[in-house]
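HUMAN:
Could you generate one sequence with tokenized structure?
ASSISTANT:
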Amino acid sequence: MKNYNLLFLCNCIITILISTAGCREKSPVTAADDYPYPDTSHSTVQIKWESTERKLSHDVYFAEYGRIRKIGHDSLMLTYHCGKKNEEWNNIVSRLSTDNGSTWQKARYLLQSQTQNFIGFCQPDLRLLNNGQLILVYCARGYRGDTAVNHIQYMLSKDKGATWSKPADIASGHFWEPNLVQLPDDELEVFFTCENTNSKRSAGRPEQRIMLCSSLDKGATWAQPKEVDFKPRIRDGGPIRLPFGAVRLPWHNYRADKPYWPCKPKVVER
């Protein structure tokens, strides 16, 4: 009888051990393509910077949003917004270099607040189009008396910036920070930031989303704005169209629970 009980107890222990082993969590299995291939390439390009900086903006109280674009064989064009104290974001200026940046011509005001029916002009972005024309997109900051409405506008130049067309609207709303790209099929796309003024869910500030307007006729007409990215409680902004594929990069996002959350760029496919 004792031997029988001992045998029964051993069988129970073996059964429990087998059952427990079957319930153990298995080690995760990963496929070969779960991780990117290791980058074993070695760059042969070396970038050497000058030891001293050079100021490119003209003598003005404030200058910001500087962008340089190559517009010819040896020609570069610099654009930025500037102004005196309390009018820092009111004017858009260009400077031309015909020797790859060694020297720069005198600053030229393209848009000035005191000559237009807007508070000011800012955040210019310049591109050389496939047909040789220059296009400048920027933010026109609200009609006087209606500061809640901004306009994303553009101007064209057929003579490398010597003369410009009259400003024309792309879209209007609580918009800013336009960035333009021309696709291989000549379609123009302008990405920009849109603020939701009815929301204070991003660290006490309005949420932001990324919008897009496109043109199939070289800017003559533009489609209605459409949303391409939005994350609740985040202030996505500063969109940049990347040169590869249909992706773009927004930056400086805020989180409501962490007001000083560090900026984390992200790439979003469309």
In short: The first strand starts at residue 62 and ends at 70. The mean pLDDT is 78. Residues 121-269 form a domain with the Neuraminidase fold (CATH 2.120.10.10). The helical segments are 2-23.
